[in-house]
Design a protein that fits this description.
Elements (H helix, E strand, L loop, with lengths): L1 E11 H8 L5 H6 L26 E11 L1 H4 L1 H5 L6 H36 L4 E3 L35 H8 L14 E10 L7
Antiparallel strand pairs: 1-2, 2-4, 3-4
């Protein structure tokens, strides 16, 4: 079982660019990810990413925190396996990891669907999805071809130079947790929406 917490905030694009963009430094983040130069929603771009949202007045931010019960987090079991049968223990761990991954993907897709709906509700707006694009099993960029869905392509906050840590912590009040030796206490999904409308609501 798991619980959800949702967050929403609005800032001006001008303030966000001033306070939360990392300039060219964001390329260091992207270079560590497999999408760099391989997926059309990831750098390198043929436009200036830091200027992408400048034509809009507002940036709306939507966060979702997925909190798993201790059993799904593996708790002490994750830290150190005590079972005699190590193979069985490893199988249990993989099963729980799969469950967590499937839940996070499901909640991500639900959030993506909600925020995409705002594009239709508020004409002229455009979404910033949580994470890079995975519509195609193999992106046409690897073949030197253009995007198959160029009208639908969207860019995530980090790929445009936004600081996801500052965005989450200071604008949504969510302290990010990262996977280390054990699973974090919760997983965080963040999406954005550029819009000129001053009263967008999810």
């Amino acid at each position: 079982m798991y619980q959800l917490e949702v967050f929403q905030n609005r800032t001006t694009v001008k303030e966000y660019i001033r306070d939360y963009t990392k300039g060219e430094g964001f390329l260091e983040f992207c270079e560590k990810n497999t999408g760099y130069g391989q997926i059309w929603s990831c750098p390198l771009y043929d436009f200036n990413p830091s200027a992408y949202g400048k034509k809009y007045k507002y940036l709306y931010l939507f966060g979702k925190r997925v909190i798993f019960e201790p059993a799904e987090q593996n708790d002490k079991e994750w830290k150190k396996a005590r079972a005699v049968d190590r193979e069985q223990e490893r199988a249990k761990k993989k099963e729980k990891e799969k469950y967590i991954s499937e839940v996070c993907l499901m909640e991500k897709n639900l959030l993506v669907e909600q925020i995409h709906g705002l594009e239709k509700k508020y004409p002229g707006s455009i979404t910033l999805p949580a994470g890079s694009c995975h519509v195609c099993s193999r992106c046409s960029r690897t073949e030197g071809a253009g995007c198959r869905y160029s009208d639908e392509i969207r860019f995530f906050i980090e790929s445009l130079g936004g600081s996801i840590g500052g965005t989450a912590g200071e604008l949504l009040g969510i302290e990010l947790q990262w996977m280390k030796q054990q699973p974090p206490g919760y997983y965080t999904l963040i999406e954005g929406l550029f819009s000129d409308d001053p009263s967008v609501e999810i």
